[in-house]
Design a protein that fits this description.
The structure holds 2 protein chains of 2 kinds. By secondary structure, chain A is of the alpha/beta class. Chain A is built from 10 helices and 13 strands. Helix content of chain A is about 30%, strand content about 25%. Classes of the chains: A alpha/beta, B mainly alpha.
């Protein structure tokens, strides 16, 4: 069974269309990164998946209709909306007690074990913790819940690089076990590149790119060329080009231009897989109109 | 056999669901008490301040109490006992009003609603747990605090009046401690719990809806309705309606009248056959239904 299945998901706020017929299919055991500019509809899509907002179209999460069965769904789904949603008056010990009280799948010993690795004290109130510690606390609470889907909406917003790294390491090492599914949105794309299994770009309520990371690596190539080779590189129809220190960096989409291979590009410059961030700029920045068809 | 086992699992799933709902309710109420400590601190502070005033009063009045005739002695003390109950109830009422106004607004303002909604607690459970505070928890708490306060007052007056010639045994007998507290409990549960339910329902609904300043949204509309009615029809039915609601179920029971007549006016039959009670409860149900629906749609502001 697919973890998330959406067909023709639509959502409008007045005349603003936040989601414009989104089709989505996420299998269990994947880590999907949803990337998009501000206001692209990422949070709206997540809110629909979490049953926080009504929508048009068809949507099933773990076989349930999230809007109609939110509280039942929340036994199998966890989410961290952003770093600032834990109630500031709450003590750490109260948070543990409360989540343990209302959630049948919460493993308190596991949460305490995770907290023991941090400097967070049980007697502290959330308002006394730093932003990074609040994120650690929320992650410890969420990771101690035996859920099937974890949704993270900008979970590391405003955290310093050490906390961000720790956050994703902890998630991978102590939580992800290939039977769980994680959906994450973020602007800090670079840190995600090595942990994602699937990638999705969303812009103006539409999915503009959707592929697995294996496809991503085989499909997109980036080549850095010296000025004397630019003409040759351009003749191969790159999807995007930018200049850095007098050299040109070109990105090629083998999905569009199948004749291109690595050797051919290696002859004119240095070839590598583009970073998600660079591809994002290439796809979204190049628009409008150049919608890449969904690969899946 | 098969149907039987099916029925068994069905009923066990059902009872599991009920147990889960009860746990969610219990922990939701506990978390309200964690967050809003004014629920018990408010009435407690009122009681302590009252006791402080009472001691000063007793010490300074000692001579005149001793000198007055016995019947008057009783009245002097009885009024103070009633006053302590009224003060604690009044405090609880104010705490309840402000609590209800903030209950579903505060969680949207501080964005914690996203955390609460990430847990398997339904909107219905949340709203009901928040209603429980003013109509069950606060009355019971103010009853317990009133009882303790009056007991302390009795002990204090015994100590202060000792050896003054006042008949202490008669004092204990005449304040009819348990009789009065029984009446108080009944009053708290019926008037504060049931009669005021639509008021708290209204406050919770406004608190779930208000984009900002729930206080103004809660109190301005009744005020405007009164004004418009006055201008348009030169009547004040709405105002009368509000006054009746706030004053308590007048004919059905008369709180704070002479203590001797309490039981006579408090006949439950009378109270529970008042149409106003049932209209009020129906209205509360409507307000709560709307509040639950609103919470479902509302996110952080």
């Amino acid at each position: 069974m697919a973890c998330i299945e959406a067909r023709g998901l639509r959502k409008a706020f007045g005349t603003t269309i936040a989601l414009d017929g989104v089709n989505l299919h996420v299998e269990e055991g994947r880590i999907l990164g949803i990337i998009g500019p501000n206001g692209a509809g990422k949070t709206t899509a997540l809110n629909a998946i979490l049953g926080l907002t009504p929508y048009q179209g068809e949507l099933r999460v773990l076989g349930r209709d999230p809007w109609a069965e939110r509280n039942r769904l929340m036994r199998d789904v966890c989410f961290i909306a952003d770093v600032a949603v834990l109630p500031r008056w709450m003590r750490v010990s109260q948070a543990l007690e409360y989540v343990g009280g209302v959630h049948p799948r919460f493993d308190r010993a596991k949460a305490e074990g995770l907290l023991a690795k941090t400097t967070i004290k049980h007697t502290s109130k959330v308002r006394q913790l730093s932003k990074g510690m609040v994120a650690q606390l929320h992650l410890a609470l969420v990771m101690a819940i035996d859920a099937r889907l974890l949704v993270l909406d900008e979970p590391t917003l405003g955290l310093d690089i050490l906390f961000r790294k720790q956050f994703y390491d902890s998630l991978l090492n102590d939580y992800f076990d290939r039977s769980r599914t994680i959906v994450v949105t973020t602007h800090q794309v670079e840190e995600l590149q090595h942990i994602l299994t699937d990638l999705m770009f969303i812009d103006r309520g539409r999915i503009v790119l959707s592929c697995s990371m294996e496809e991503f690596e085989s499909r997109y190539l980036e080549v850095t060329v010296n000025p004397d080779q630019v003409a040759a590189a351009r003749s191969l129809k790159p999807m995007y080009e930018r200049q850095v220190f007098g050299r040109s960096i070109l990105i090629f989409d083998r999905g569009v231009n199948r004749n291109i291979d690595r050797q051919q590009l290696a002859a004119i410059g240095e070839v590598r897989t583009p970073s998600i961030a660079d591809l994002f700029v290439a796809v979204i920045g190049n628009q409008s109109g150049m919608a890449q068809g969904a690969a899946q | 056999m098969n149907t039987q086992s099916n029925a068994m699992t069905e009923s066990s799933i059902q009872s599991q669901g009920i147990a889960q709902a009860a746990r969610a309710m219990y922990w939701s109420i506990r978390r309200e008490l964690w967050e809003n400590r004014s629920i018990y601190i408010g009435p407690l502070v009122a009681a302590v301040l009252f006791l402080f005033g009472f001691v000063i009063n007793m010490v300074s009045m000692r001579r005149s109490i001793v000198a007055s005739p016995r019947a008057q002695q009783h009245d002097l003390l009885a009024t103070r006992y009633e006053l302590s109950g009224a003060l604690i109830m009044g405090t609880a009422l104010i705490v309840g009003v402000f609590y209800s106004l903030d209950a579903l607004y505060g969680e949207r303002r501080d964005r914690s609603i996203l955390f609460w909604k990430s847990l398997p607690v339904s909107d219905l459970t949340t709203v009901l747990s928040k209603l429980t505070i003013p109509i069950v928890i606060l009355p019971l708490l103010s009853f317990a605090i009133s009882l303790a306060t009056q007991f302390i007052m009795l002990v204090l007056s015994t100590v202060i009046l000792q050896g003054s010639g006042v008949n202490i045994a008669a004092l204990w007998r005449e304040v009819s401690f348990f009789h009065v507290s029984g009446v108080l409990l009944y009053h708290l549960l019926t008037v504060h719990g049931l009669w005021y339910a639509p008021l708290y329902g209204w406050l919770l609904m406004v608190s779930a809806w208000a984009p900002r300043a729930p206080f103004i949204w809660a109190f301005l509309p009744p005020f405007v309705i009164c004004g418009v009615e006055r201008v348009a029809f030169n009547t004040s039915n709405f105002l009368m309606l509000l006054q009746e609601r706030l004053a308590g179920p007048g004919d059905a029971m008369a709180p704070h009248s002479a203590p001797k007549d309490f039981m006579a006016t408090l006949i439950p039959d009378h109270f529970f056959s008042t149409p106003g009670l049932w209209i009020g409860l129906a209205l509360s149900a409507v307000f709560l239904f709307v509040a639950v629906r609103l919470r479902r749609y509302r996110g952080p502001i």
